[in-house]
Amino acid sequence: MSNVDFDTASRVNDISCINFKETRMVFFLFAFLWYAIMLTIRVVLIFIASKYYKEPIKDNMDINVISILVEASVITLGLGSFFWIINNYANSPWILIAAIVLMVSFIPSYNFLISPLQYLFFKKTYYRDKRFEQLLANENYIYNIRIVKGNLNNAYATGILPYTKTILIGEKLVKNMTWEQIQGIVFHEIGHLKYKHLNRLYFANLLIFPIFYCLSLLRAQVPMLNNSLFMQYLSVFLVGTFWGLLLWYIPGKIQYKLELQADSFAASVIGNENMISALKRLHELGNNKVPKWNIAYPTLDKRVENIGKQQL
Fold it and tell me: Which residues pair with 166 in a beta bridge?
């Protein structure tokens, strides 16, 4: 090998080492920033929700702290891995396509598939109640059900995979509602699982992420949007805003209809009067508030009107 070839090879190796180090630094910087942003947003939302619903901040932090740490860690690792693959396999189209597919489905997949597992293992925050397990067994429903410790005054259905479908009930509801009322809340959540509402929301979210990716590609192909730094920032802002509206509006409008369907199912099981009583008590425990900006949940009047349409 000539000295020229040797020098060229040395420079290539040096450049490769530098690129690797730069990539690693960018990855760690990205991971740190994303992790910090995730934690900050979740904590701020907890403070806002606690103030709005007049719930103790400590209780909400106790419930959410593990969830926040796990969620931020998993999403940071997933997004970081995506950018690492793009950087190292830029010349492999099939690998890039697979990475993009995983990327656009990662966040909704985490929320609907991975996150529900935490409710089955973190026993310090959640506990089992045989009354509710027997209630589900009597109706032949194979779902997990957990009581959330603290002052949570709501209930949720989560999980779309077998054996991860779980109903969460705030301990405050259990202590402050009659058995007939709490059954209404439970059967409302059963309605979400029975009619596969979470599956619909999951696939709606999956469709939105590719739309965002396609918009980003189109933005990069329009010369006018890349003529100046101002236009580049403006186009990124507009695409991001449009995607945010889609992410908020489409699943929200879908969930609005699903909430009414779940109410109807619960009313068909326990009766209209018992279900209306459950909704009114839930409304009272929530300080009679449904945020105006929340398009995903009908008002109490709308829910009562919907149940009134059901045949006894």
Answer: 144, 158
